[in-house]
Description:
By secondary structure, this protein is of the alpha+beta class. The chain has eight helices and eight strands, in the order αβαβααββααβαββαβ.
Amino acid sequence: YPAHMERMGYAKDVDWIEFRVEVPAEIPEKFQRIADIVKKKFGLRVVKFTSRKKLKDAYGKALFRLINDAYDQLYGYCPLSERQIDHYIAQYLGFLRLDCVSVVVDANDDLVAVGISMPSLSKALQKSKGKMFPFGWYHILKAINGRNDVIDLLLIAVKKEYQRRGVNALLFADLIPIYNKYGFKFAESNIELEGNESVQLQWQYFNYRQHRRRRAWTKSI
């Protein structure tokens, strides 16, 4: 594909890369130490939910506003409108496996960071051929609630004033034991801009490899 696009007169604009990360048997020692320091220094804590309704009511809108704030300088990101936020709250939050969601708040219970992950649906969607009916729903539910060795890291968002301060260590310190509990062996990162070194540095504490690349092409006309 790259050679074909270049023959057509297009040039690289920007690349996104993805990582396959091994889930460690224990929280990396340095990671845990950073999490403990950050928690104490900034008065932060992790909040877990057992009710989707409580998550929606407490942090539904705040979650997507945080994403708008954290991602607004990234290439190609368009801030979500309030109408879109309402739509995504209704469409997606109901599907989440709540123990795989980590919410970090400050002393005032204001949202500081969120990490949303979900058992991979890739194999289930292949088996269902992309259709929910007549039996596609069974494969998808089995992937979400049954044995699955891959967890998808859908998004991590940290409030701007807390970025580059180790807050994401709190998210992983919460999630790694849960991943081990359910037998997840690998985590698939979401797309990350090739030059976003601050995000990619978080993988330095894990065994990982960069295994996918996406590209946006540009052409002068």
